[in-house]
Amino acid sequence: MLNRLLSHDLPRNRGLAIALVLILLGLALTPFLFPGTKALNVAAKIIVFIVLVASFDLLLGYTGIVSFAHTMFFGIGAYGVAIASTRFGPTWGVIALGVAAALVVSLLLSLLIGLFSLRVKAIFFAMITLAVASAFLTLASQLSEFTGGEDGLTFKVPEALQPGTSYLDAPLLGASVDGRFATYYLLFAVALALLLAMLRIVNSPFGRVLQAIRENDFRAEAIGYRTVVYRTLASVLSALFATLAGCLLALWLRYNGPDTTLSFEIMLDVLLIVVIGGMGTVYGAVVGSVLFVFAQNYLQDLLKIGASAVEGVPVLAQIVSPDRWLLWLGILFVLSIYHFPAGVVGRLRALRRRGPKP
Amino acid sequence: MTTTAAATAASVAPAGASAAVPKAGFDLLPLALVALLALGGWPLIGSTSTWLTLTVAGLSMGMIIFIIASGLTLVFGLMDVLNFGHGVFIALGAYIATSVFAGMADWTGSAQLWRNLAAIGVTVLLAVLAAAAVGWAFERVLVRPVYGQHLKQILITMGGMIIGEELIKVVWGATPIAIEMPEALRGVVTFGNSAVEKYRVFATLVGAVVLAVLLFTLNRTKVGLLIRAGVQDREMVESLGYRIRRLFVGVFVAGSALAGLGGALWGIYQHGVVPQIGAHVNVLIFIVIIIGGLGSTTGCFVGALLVGLMANYTGFLAPKVAMFSNIGLMVAILLWRPQGLYPVTNR
């Protein structure tokens, strides 16, 4: 049963399995274990990032294509829900409409970019997506009557998901069962389903072809697979999953703006997570997202302690200042590309393989 | 592609071409495209004076972009390394300009042209030296271990970019810094009805000098010969006994230095810098080198002019879609020539 659910791609390492179960339980029980807005927000962000990063891994880790337009699709999803809700009011039908419209836009756009630039070298794709994404960001902040410009859009979600809606009068096991609670579990369920779907895709024959293309595209072509078609399909699929992740984020925040979903910083975050978590493993996205979002929210506190310890030392104090947390992650990123290119998950799996040998 | 392009192009044989060595004619079509774009902008804009202002602005912007992008395209052509961290050198140059200008405030504030130029000279010198030094370290630490692995190159250089940007924030702080334009380069020169900013003329001149030096080095010196040969066929040059790796380090350092120079000019041009300046300009220079054909210096020049003109024209005509116009330009050119304006063989 479990084997089937995970598409025969088991963690293959005890430590990893324990970590994954802990993450799953932790996320499933967050409203009960850690009551409070901040913990719930962090958990929701982790959930959205897991889907986003896993969808990017489909492209980078499994197919070996570098795209910098991934946040563009993330943003399209979020804007789809946001624009539909502001225009037509908060109902479920409108949200479905927004999601559907966003999916169609993402489909067409990714198909266009893919067919146009995947014919040539991978390096072209990286540059072209970078250019298109930055143009899209500018466009989104310019068309203010449509997207709310730099300020973004704040909108209402259907009543069942509004924070004011209360389902139980008394808190259940320490958690207040209200609209936020419902939204959180909606996010959790959808994200879990999406993650399992992606696991299914990468472990299907189609996923194997993608990996073959990553390893040696010339040979894959020679065996008889049309690499352009497979690459384009992979980029379309990953764009669609990213769009759905964007929809989830918009539902959670009840807001969307250029900085929340489209900015290049988020693209870099996703890149960092994929590489640190482990390219070419869906579980890497899970572990990486948890580590990263925790670091983002709590590493700064840690650095604050470090900064107070070295206060007075001129250069050192600035380097460990809490604002410079990205510097440390950047260094970790470079080191992990050199020393463990398969990331945390790949490292754990390799441990097991090396274990029984001697 | 090359042969058909050369056949359709109006080829001009250099005067001294001997019959023994067949020479490919210079492809003039892309240059004609620049003229076409400039002329096409004229009726759309309507007024000649505005058109002239915009054209000069576009040319100067193109020149600065060319200075920045030329190093990147050479590095790619020679060693097949695409440096996503090129933006760090741009940002470094621009930030050094802020420091020098702040330190030499009485020189830049002086009304005498020579003192302004001396201040700019110091800025440029420091920016070039610093960018070259950082470029050398960048190549040594980040790029060298991942030769020949495209995916890792993209990721590593991107990581270098993140680290570089953060280090710049450590030194100069994360807030935007304004740059005061030197006194004598402020204001405009008027030609008839059209006003042209003095600094833009200055930037265009600097760009022209860089172009001339670059073309001279590439076409008239032995080092240039080796670089061009390396772009065409690296292994052959190596087998002739030249240390292509040393050559490459030189090109990488020179490319970084050019980016530093361009960054300093760009920072002054924009009247200020933000830490993300590198990432912003990166997008433009990628479009430029894709348009020009990866690895081609001439293509990079033509591409930079096209992008500069396009950005200024659409910035005036339809500011909301200005950024998309460059993408449109790139798509159109790639549909016409899928390898860029001047395709480099073997890539």
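The domain at 2-354 of chain A is CATH 1.10.3470 (ABC transporter involved in vitamin B12 uptake, BtuC).
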